[in-house]
Amino acid sequence: MNGALALKEYQQTSAHSGVMDASPHKLIQMLLDGALTRILSAKASLKQKNIAKKGEQIGSAISIVEGLRSSLDFNQGGEISKNLDALYEYINHVLLKANIKNDVALLDEAGKLLSQIKMGWDAIDPNAAQR
User: Fold this and answer.
1) Structural domain total, the chain
2) How far apart are CA 103 and CA 118, in angstroms?
3) Which of 24, 51, 85, 87 is 20 to 30 Å from 95 at the Cα level?
4) What is the spatial distance between Cα 95 and Cα 53, in angstroms, rounded to a whole number?
5) Is the pTM of this model over 0.70?
6) Which of 32, 30, 28, 25 shows the shortest CA–CA distance to 129?
7) CB-hemisphere CA count at 13 Å for 23?
8) Is residue 16 part of a domain?
């Protein structure tokens, strides 16, 4: 097995075990990180004129945001869940437009919004509900 293949297998195994051991709070952080990483990769691919990879990365970011959206609990989350639902829907709309128009500014907008959500999420004490 060559070194690159071994590294890729290790990363996949490491990511899988990280997900399996993660709390729900940590999973949301990981998903937000994943979406942000894919947006950055899409921007880099667009600048390199690799349109196929740009599309794959944006598609993956959209899937992650949709997963975040589908995990919202409207019974417990109330108004916050409704607001996040609308924001996630808007972010996906912006990402779709960015993909169609090859627009870095729209990718920046989606990334900024997700970064703000992540900053808020990171500020939440995951143990607060257990107290």
Assistant:
1) 1
2) 23
3) 24
4) 14
5) yes
6) 25
7) 7
8) no
